[in-house]
């Protein structure tokens, strides 16, 4: 069994050693340009076109993250990057769900308890108690009901929040009000006070966080984007905040990363920025999952996290 590995910034030796420990029978190597030697499996993140082109003999292609948009973007720009018929597998959870829960809960509670506003008041040396938000009218809407969206929804519901989810296709989450498809998007947005985006990045979801969507939220709503920067039309968010339709935003992802130093988000008093750290891949847990999935494929079984390439997730 031959496995090739490529990641632009992960510690390659950590992965080579870790995977060898889990799959002693495998020959594992870091892919280098010009390497056209046979491979049964590829472990990648944002791989170069030439790494995967013409590798129809692969039994499995593993994306080292929850999203596969980088690979599918390559395929759209350079057809053949994704070898025809080769199963594409993404990581499921691997510790990311807990991290996303932590990020989402801390951000939601910050807005619910108005800590962001008290921080601004502190800078002005202003002592002014604010009317507290109430759970009854502080509806949290989550766009995306996959592994991460479901996890965040259930955790927030445990804090007593009225949580609802919207997804492209119908999903059922115990205790959570669910909406699906374009026909129900307006109903989902109506009455939402805080919006969390955890959608997959597909051609249909690019630019979905726009002025039209913001206008359907409650007045002075909050926006938290934890999915992909391309989901958000940044100018529309700035306009919605200027108009008072959106009160504040927490952004972990951006159309251009790192965020350019002159970008207006840096200095906007109602925008909170983090450098794409909401949920990162944990190598040891991820390697466990990849190794188990390879064993499933070798046994003729379907791996966990198999991607529907047509849908993009």
TrEMBL record:
Any idea where this protein resides? Cytoplasm
- Gene Ontology MF: a single term: hydroxypyruvate reductase [NAD(P)H] activity
Q: Keyword NAD, does the record have it? A: yes
Q: Which InterPro entries match?
A: D-isomer_DH_NAD-bd, GhrA_Enterobacterales, NAD(P)-bd_dom_sf
Q: Name one Pfam family in it.
A: 2-Hacid_dh_C
Which reactions appear under catalytic activity for this entry? (R)-glycerate + NADP(+) = 3-hydroxypyruvate + NADPH + H(+); (R)-glycerate + NAD(+) = 3-hydroxypyruvate + NADH + H(+); glycolate + NADP(+) = glyoxylate + NADPH + H(+)
What's in the keyword line of the UniProt record?
Cytoplasm, NAD, NADP, Oxidoreductase
Q: Superkingdom of this entry's organism?
A: Bacteria
EC class name: oxidoreductase
Which residues of this protein are catalytic? 228, 276
Record-linked CDD domains: GDH_like_2
Domain D-isomer specific 2-hydroxyacid dehydrogenase NAD-binding: from-to ranges: 106-278
Q: Does the keyword Hydrolase apply?
A: no
Cite the EC number.
1.1.1.79, 1.1.1.81
HAMAP family the record matches: 2_Hacid_dh_C_GhrA (MF_01666)
Q: What family is this protein classified in? A: Belongs to the D-isomer specific 2-hydroxyacid dehydrogenase family. GhrA subfamily.
Record's function text: Catalyzes the NADPH-dependent reduction of glyoxylate and hydroxypyruvate into glycolate and glycerate, respectively.
Tell me the protein's name.
Glyoxylate/hydroxypyruvate reductase A
- Organism, scientific name: Yersinia entomophaga
């Amino acid at each position: 069994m031959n496995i090739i590995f490529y990641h632009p910034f992960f510690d390659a030796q950590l992965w080579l050693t870790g995977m060898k420990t889990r799959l002693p029978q495998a020959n594992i190597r870091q892919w280098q340009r010009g390497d056209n030697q046979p491979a049964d499996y590829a472990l990648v993140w944002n791989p170069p076109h030439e790494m995967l082109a013409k590798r129809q003999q692969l039994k499995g292609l593993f994306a080292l993250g929850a999203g596969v948009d980088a690979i599918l973007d390559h395929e759209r720009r350079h057809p053949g990057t994704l070898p025809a018929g080769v199963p594409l597998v993404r990581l499921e959870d691997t510790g990311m769900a807990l991290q996303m829960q932590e990020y989402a809960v801390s951000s939601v509670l910050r807005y619910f308890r108005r800590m962001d506003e008290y921080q601004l008041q502190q800078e002005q040396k202003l002592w002014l108690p604010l009317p507290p938000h109430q759970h009854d009218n502080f509806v949290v809407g989550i766009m995306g009901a996959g592994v991460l969206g479901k996890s965040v929804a259930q955790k927030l519901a445990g804090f007593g929040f009225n949580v609802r989810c919207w997804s492209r296709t119908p999903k059922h989450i115990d205790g959570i009000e669910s909406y699906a498809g374009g026909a129900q998007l307006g109903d989902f947005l109506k009455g939402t006070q805080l919006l969390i985006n955890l959608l997959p990045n597909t051609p249909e979801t690019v630019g979905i966080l726009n002025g039209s969507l913001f206008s359907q939220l409650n007045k002075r709503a909050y926006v938290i984007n934890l999915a992909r920067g391309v989901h958000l039309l940044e100018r529309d968010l700035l306009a919605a905040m200027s108009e008072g339709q959106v009160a504040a935003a927490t952004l972990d992802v951006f159309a251009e990363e790192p965020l350019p130093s002159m970008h207006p988000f840096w200095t906007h008093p109602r925008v909170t920025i983090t450098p794409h750290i909401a949920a990162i891949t944990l190598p040891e847990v991820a390697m466990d999952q990849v190794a188990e999935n390879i064993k499933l494929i070798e046994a003729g079984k379907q791996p966990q996290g198999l991607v529907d390439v047509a849908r993009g997730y």
